[in-house]
Design brief:
This protein is of the alpha/beta class and 700 residues long. The chain contains 23 helices and 30 strands. A seven-stranded mixed sheet has the order 24-23-22-25-26-30-27, sandwiched between helices. The protein has a six-stranded parallel sheet with strand order 6-11-10-7-8-9, with helices on both faces. The longest helix is centred in the first third of the chain and has 14 residues, at 79-92. The two termini are 61 Å apart. 42% of the residues are buried. The model is unreliable at 350-390 (pLDDT under 50).
């Protein structure tokens, strides 16, 4: 017994039959001709019956099979068949549902008529050749036109009986075109030009019938579309609505194929061949408006959204879509939204395919992306995507990244460049440019170039060359190069990138240890080089650490913290005005753009600052306990290093450590001596002994 009977014979009918069979719903499809049966392949869930049925035959079949429903997906112009199916369902009390082909988009330059006869009457009042694309059954209606054998070119199926019937109506030779569709816009346009046609006649067959390709071709060739309206004004479901209904009715599992597609900078010319194919096959396009508008196909369903969770929710709630493409700018592995999107789509699931060295390059993310986004790791440490047949199948397709495109445009290699993004994220570009000869960066604001240029000038790097690229790949693309001191007032497009060339870049030290003599000195106290070195080693900074330097003095330790945590942030807190000025001077000298100076007394000066990961206390003004209390309130796992000169301060630090229960409590006493030349001899001159105390609670 069949659960569903589908009257097919159309693209929509074939699609529904396959949809039901793929979801293991017993289905029987009805097609009128052998030609129609070739579009369906029988299997254990799908049976195909060929041949025309009258109302009595339908009634007999419905009574015998007793299906849960009958779906009428016949051609919108097969009015008599639809009436017969509906009548047979009413008599046998079988639920009937009409699946309608969506109408085409209204075109202002087209001529709309209600019937073949009306089309013939209109054309008989015109001059110029006509391409008929209505099929062989309608040709007789055009034979009453004067000179029809010279003006009309009929395109019909290339079946022997069809060709013979057309010949009997007087359509012969080049006026009879036997071809099987589908027909692209380009092919339709070529035919119009080949036969010098001024008119194209078509039925409103919707997207599935190639309607839009015909209309687009006619407009391209300055031919007038003559559109014959549908014979019945019906109500029913679209194919998508039908799939949604069937999914809910039979509690089917939604298993769409989802493609995360990198589309390059945005111009359609930047699409890969693989990307174009994916877009052509998509029945739903998702992405930000700029990306969607640049690549969508005529009549394609779109969902304008870039937020990952909203995208997932929409996919889950729309089972009618089988092939979904999510478009992302640039390349999916290069500062792309694909990272977060993959994470959200893969919640409680894994995806089809294996992402390893054997996998085609087009399906790879960078290893960093794999390690951060794919939860399961294989023995080689590489992420794997494994099929889960109850969840969407996800494929990742790369695109052309802005760095590849831009660097080729300016004629520079990118393999030796530092590549970063300052678009919507914290990035200390000054640090990179100061220490790298070539830096590529994505920007994201109209004043991004000017802000960067001003900082470069401030830090004595006004001669740095800035290559600027805006609206890459678009018609208004703009690429130029100037020095930083020429760009301090520049306002450009937010959609921009830069490549900074600094021939004077210095090498970044891998360890701390700047000589005392290199700092601008004053009367303010300064933590000496040897003490700084040990203190910094005890802090154990990372490149993105968030640091406080309490009682910063000249800022020597603040500077070294900022250089080591070059993509983090350092706050130097100092109460003395002359010391604050010294810190400012040293900040400019060492180009530590990630160093902020707070003039004030701790702990009050710390209250509004972000939670630190690390803190150095070189001077507390008697407020050590209060400072430590505030630090652990902001971050219970903050790592604190305290420098003590007096035994009283050591005692206070130990009492504080005990009061707040720090599990790590280390004390190092450091005595350093430096040589001093006295005539022909060198004597060791001792520095004041320092106690270096480290406090931290472990991660829970």
């Amino acid at each position: 017994m069949y659960k569903v009977l589908v009257f097919a014979g159309t693209t929509e009918g074939y699609e529904i039959c396959r949809f039901l069979a793929d979801h293991q719903v017993q289905t029987k499809g009805f097609v009128a001709t052998e030609y129609g049966s070739k579009s369906l392949t029988e299997n254990e869930y799908l049976t195909v019956q060929t041949g025309r049925l009258d109302e009595a035959a339908m009634e007999q079949i419905f009574a015998q099979e007793k299906p849960e429903m009958v779906l009428d997906a016949t051609h919108p112009y097969a009015a008599e068949v639809t009436v017969n199916i509906r009548t047979a369902c009413e008599k046998t009390q079988i639920p009937y549902r009409r699946v309608l082909r969506e109408s085409g988009v209204h075109e202002d330059k087209a001529v709309y008529v209600e019937s073949v006869q009306a089309a013939a009457q209109y054309l008989d009042q015109t001059q110029g050749n006509v391409l008929l694309t209505t099929g062989s059954k309608e040709l007789a209606g055009f034979t009453g036109m004067k000179d029809y054998q010279e003006r009309l070119y009929a395109r019909v199926l290339s079946l022997p009986n069809v060709m013979q019937a057309c010949a009997e109506l007087g359509f012969e030779g080049k006026h009879l075109i036997g071809m099987q569709g589908p027909f692209s816009r380009e092919l339709n346009a070529a035919m119009l030009r080949q036969y010098h046609c001024k008119y194209l006649v078509t039925k409103d067959t919707g997207k599935a019938g190639g309607f839009q390709d015909k209309i687009d071709a006619a407009l391209e060739c300055d031919a007038v579309p003559v559109i014959i309206g549908r014979p019945l004004k019906e109500e029913g479901m679209s194919v998508k609505e039908c799939k949604r209904f069937l999914t809910e009715h039979f509690s089917l599992t939604h298993q769409p194929h989802v493609t995360l597609l990198g589309i390059g900078m945005g111009s359609p010319e930047m699409l890969t061949v693989q990307g174009k194919n994916s877009l052509d096959q998509a029945d739903l396009l998702i992405g930000a408006r700029r990306m969607v508008d640049s690549v969508k196909r005529p009549g394609q369903d779109v969902f304008i959204e870039y937020r990952s969770q909203e995208i997932k929710d929409y996919i889950d709630s729309h089972p009618e879509y089988n092939n979904i493409v999510i478009v992302l700018s640039g390349d999916v592995g290069f500062y792309s939204g694909a990272k977060k999107l993959l994470d959200v789509l893969q919640q409680n699931r894994q995806c089809q395919g294996i992402m390893n060295e054997k996998m085609p390059e087009r399906n790879k993310l960078s290893q960093d992306d794999l390690n951060s986004e794919i939860p399961e790791q294989n023995e080689m440490g590489q992420g794997r995507l494994i099929q889960d047949t109850t969840q969407p199948e996800i494929q990742v397709q790369c695109g052309i990244s802005s760095v590849v495109y831009f660097m080729s445009k300016i004629g520079l290699s990118w393999d030796d460049a530092k590549i970063v993004s300052a678009h919507g994220r914290g990035c200390n570009l000054i640090s990179y440019i100061c220490n790298e000869k070539k830096v590529f960066a994505i920007l994201g604001t109209s004043d991004g170039v000017a802000v960067l240029a001003k900082k470069l000038v401030e830090y004595g790097m006004g001669n740095v060359l800035l290559y600027v690229g805006e609206n890459l790949s678009y018609d208004n693309e703009k690429i130029f190069v100037k020095t930083a001191d020429e760009m301090t007032e520049y306002t450009g497009d937010p959609l921009s990138v830069i490549c900074a060339i600094n021939e004077s870049a210095g090498e970044r030290l891998e360890t701390h240890g700047i000589k005392d003599e290199e700092f601008i000195r004053g009367k303010a106290p300064m933590t000496k080089e040897e003490v700084r070195t040990v203190s910094l080693s005890k802090l154990r900074l990372t490149e993105d650490s968030i640091c406080y330097d309490v009682g910063a003095g000249t800022g020597s330790l603040s500077i070294e913290m900022a250089l080591r945590a070059h993509q983090g942030k350092v706050w130097a807190i100092e109460k003395k005005e002359d010391a604050v000025e010294l810190i400012r001077q040293n900040k400019v000298k060492f180009a530590t753009d990630n160093l902020e100076i707070i003039e004030g007394l701790a702990p009050e000066a710390l209250v509004d600052l972000p939670a630190p990961t690390h803190a150095f206390i070189g001077g507390s003004s008697g407020n050590l306990k209060e400072i430590v209390k505030l630090l652990i309130e902001k971050n219970p796992q903050v790592r604190i290093v305290i420098n003590c000169i007096t035994l009283e301060t050591v005692s206070e630090a130990l009492e504080t450590a005990k009061e707040f229960g720090f599990e790590e409590n280390e004390i190092v006493q450091l005595s350093a001596a430096r040589s001093k030349a006295i005539g022909r001899y060198h004597m060791m001159m001792g520095e004041n002994p320092i106690y270096i105390i480290t406090l931290q609670n472990p991660q829970k």
